[in-house]
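Fold these two proteins, one after the other.
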Amino acid sequence: MTSPQPTETADVVLVGAGIMSATLATLLNDLQPDWKMVVLERLDAAGLESSNAWNNAGTGHSALCELNYAPQAADGTVSADKALNINEQFQVTRQLWSSLVENGTLQDPSSFINSVPHISMVFGEEHANYLRARYDAFKPNKLFERMEFTEDRSVIADWAPLTMHGRGAGRVAATFAPEGTDVDFGALTNQLLDHLRGRNVSVQYGQQVTTLKRQSDGSWLVSVEDRLNSDNNRVIRAGFVFLGAGGGALPLLQKSGIKEAKGFGGFPVSGLFLRNTDPTVTAQHNAKVYGQASVGAPPMSVPHLDTRYVNGRRAIMFGPYGGFKPNFLKKGSLLDLPKSVRAHNLYPMTRAGMANLDLVKYLMGELTKTRSQRIDALHEYYPTADGSQWELIEAGQRVQVMKSDPKKGGVLQFGTELVTSADGSIGALLGASPGASTAVPIMLNLLSRCFPAKLSEWEPRIKELIPAYGVKLNDNPRLADEIMGHTASVLGID
């Protein structure tokens, strides 16, 4: 059976109109403005899945407060290495955003990023001792030099008043990082894509990719179904395809048939948040307060009490409460998980599942929680919270990466995974947090892997957009001060 003749051609097809595709399209359009690009989104607007403001915590992930990036070793020591890597990546992201504000691609920075201090807060002897050890490991590093530590309740009350009102006895410890941020990735996504329209980039909604077929010349035939008008179904021939469809990336990657996709599976995790928009409450809290995860809880389920800025309004969110649904997207199908099982990933997925039974137990427990139990969890961080003021909202789906492992058979990975073909003609991003915050370095990595022949040509421009490109700021204190000061000023977060 012969493939239908393409009705359209493009240099690049990007599947999914979220922050990843928007970032990659922005970079490619700047570096190669003559390339024709098509962004295909199955929903009727951009940034409605994981990038939507209410489908994620909006944390500018820079390891300032997220304790899972610096676990305590068996000997009691804490390493800052992973946290430094996350922070360095966010600094790269900040640099690009700053350049895009300066050149007019992005408008008022406060529409997508706001200064919100990041706080880690823990309770009890063991957790307090850990937090002190973490602080001692972090503080000597340039990127964490502004961090403060205290067990003084009056100081913590100055940092985050709601967390201390009515708190009972017991040891409390906290760290404070003033340079933390809240980010509306949905607003950012829409601004980036709006700017690209008319610049050799077409953004099309209601378009579902059904098949991907590689051709002998290395190009791809991308079959597209118009969900509103089947008469518009078509095939696009593209030189490069990026699968930035969040949880929908794995099924599409499997359809590509590339050998690099073998052994990958996905484990979907859902979540709920409590939200408060009462101005008398929200005015009293300007911080993201992260705690310690429960036993068995995935990293994205660490409890946190967050200030959010969405559409110019301030809100507070608490959660997330974990759960399980087999769909890979919030607006996906209950058959997503079973349909993703293949002969090549069944064993890795089984082994990974057996090794994470505590996670399964945790999620089942979360599913059975009553509203009263959820309010009880809120009271651990905001003791005097009035439960009637909080509404329960559904967050987005997070599909955690499951992949084969030579020693364990299969592992569950809490992070992101960039999968690219050997010839660089297709790339896909799998996984979740801290994805959005690290979108820029991830997409730069994709450029180096998929367009190695173009990189030397592009690098001068990349360095204009990202002045510290390829440099670790933590190892260059003077440059760090210059770059971080500049981006903070441009983004209005100093």
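Now the second one:
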Amino acid sequence: MKKYILKAFMLVALGAGMTSCGDTFLETDYYSGIDTEDALTSISKISTALNGTYYNLYHYSFAGNYAINIGDIPTDISYWNGKTGHFDGIYTFTIVDTDTYLNSIWEYGYKVADNAARIIEAIPALYENATEEEKAELELYLAEAYSLRGYAQLMLTNIFCHQIKVNGTDFSSEPGIVVINTPIPAFEKVSRSTIGQSYEAVLSDLNNAISHFDAAGGDRGQLQYFGKAAVYGLLARANLYMENWDAAMSNAQKALDAANISTLTYGNDSYKALYNSETSNTESMFALAITASQNWSANSSGTLWSSYNYSPSPKLQALYGENDCRTSIFAWDSQSTPEVPIFKGGKFSHFSSGNPAYATHYIVNAPEMFLIIAEANLYSANGTINNAQKALLTVAKRNSDITSVGDLPSTKENLMSFIKDERARELFQEGLRLYDLRRWDEMAEVNATQAPNISFVYTNYKISNLVFPIPSAEVNTGYGVAQNENWSSTLPQRN
């Protein structure tokens, strides 16, 4: 069978054939597009392949919906009204290894990783006869390919593996993902690396991305393409999860510096304007190429957080102060009732059109960086409570009742409690809550029911134990991907 990589431009959705029964998802070369036997032999073909890799990234099966929302849906900050069945198994923790969402995340995550690896492997051969201008272009494409692979593998590791660190306890020796350092040949057996090795691969890719951006003389300076600020932001996020506090702080500050961001937006109107359209968020460092004319419609995140069931949980809503500008984007459909709430999109509202299906994902954003700096300062030997307070204040001032560090807690314990709540308030709909709850070893409340008088089906759930199953379609191919042992025992038991 010929080898293929997907040919799809960022703003043009092309139909792609699914792997046949028995084919492993790691073989990402059965898709309509460029023949890899002689495909990546010119800069223009590299550019096309890179665009195809971006397309796979922002597909609704990956960062355009599923891979992001799985980080919020099964947590305490979301509420499912039960009207449709989207993500219901994930939300209620009735998870199976044939789950459609998990299947799709795995498949598209590896499409991104493997296609990026093909680009990384192909580019060096083009240097010999390239002009200096062309070499700079190739360096840029290398940087973006490393960024794409690093992000995809970070997401796959977080979703399909144990949290690498849980409140100081190291799980890096547990099974990780199949690391794609080089393209996977068709029908080749593979094996899972450890979580530690998976994170090492992520950090290596992201650091390589920075080096190649430097060699290229910078990045594109466009929100829909990876650039230095976003990569530093991902390095900060990964190091936070690894409890590498100094590296987390340093990279978060580098992200802010690269994006030239030192403060945030305050006030209802200004905050709401951040979510006006696909390029309106001036606090973002990387967003997907989803627009009013090129979107996933019914499969979009905006639809999920509106007509398809999901809304901020009553628990989350209660965390906001009366004068918090972030609630300016919380609105409810005319058919909404307290018992069956129907949200109108939140960060996916796309206010310029009023259609949540047109909204994009803002993947790496400045507020997260300030919150990383705040948290890391509490645990680093080089950090201070005062520096934690100052970084936290930049975000917390979204609540206009908070104006100075004097309005924030002054002890490490109380300040950390505030940071936890602030991350819930600020990062809602950005898909990070699950990993926060797991790494903090929270005894979680999940599967909320019976609005508006909420009760949780599961309380005191040790959510740090949660490990999603590897899709059975992958495991059963026999190409070497082992299942997470006893994954079903990590699910909560009914109270």
